[in-house]
Design goal:
The protein is α/β, with parallel strands linked by helices. It is built from four helices and twelve strands. It has a five-stranded mixed β-sheet, covered by helices on one side. It has a five-stranded mixed β-sheet with strand order 4-5-8-10-9, with no helix packed on it. A two-stranded antiparallel ribbon has the order 6-7. The longest helix has 10 residues. It is globular.
């Protein structure tokens, strides 16, 4: 059975009703790190099942609840999620060797605050970084990704663009 996924990152302690409106439309929410505060993960878990990794700003409480890396298979898709992972041809040193030895079908990272979806043709994987949806950081736009996993396929990818930081733009 297909699963709809909402992917977000870099909330830095920020959550609002607009984000939560999207979480309630997904089968699962994935957070790619820099959650920032337990209240954010609690709010996400209250609406939809949550998978998350901790990021470099996350303290002991979040690090004790979530791992640095999550590697799992869902709907026939091998997924690896981490906070600081880089992207095709520029993977971080922490993941570079392992990703080459055993590439997932979907590699997710956060940290850069830059929305990026790209294929790695050498390794046969899709890389996703949802950008940042929080209001703290250097990013200009607040973004998330929504997609469907279905029988080994990643499909129906949608960018959720909240517009410029501090501005109220309807999605």
């Amino acid at each position: 059975m297909a699963k709809s996924i909402l992917l977000l990152s870099d909330t830095h302690g920020y959550i609002d009703e607009r984000i939560l409106d999207w979480t309630s439309k997904a089968d699962e929410v994935w957070h790619a790190g820099d959650i920032g505060d337990q209240s954010v993960s609690d709010a996400l878990k209250a609406t939809t099942p949550l998978r998350a990794v901790y990021g470099n700003i996350d303290g002991h409480e979040l690090r004790s609840e979530f791992p640095l890396n999550q590697r799992f298979v869902l709907e026939g898709v091998d997924i690896w999620m981490t906070h600081i992972g880089g992207y095709p041809n520029r993977y971080s040193k922490e993941v570079k060797d392992e990703i080459k030895l055993n590439p997932p079908k979907l590699f997710i990272s956060g940290h850069s605050h830059i929305l990026k979806v790209m294929n790695d043709k050498k390794l046969g994987l899709l890389h996703m970084n949802p950008g940042a949806v929080g209001i703290h950081g250097f990013h200009q736009k607040r973004t998330m990704l929504k997609f469907v996993l279905d029988n080994g396929k990643i499909k129906d990818l949608e960018v959720i663009d909240f517009g410029k930081r501090g501005k109220s733009v309807s999605s």
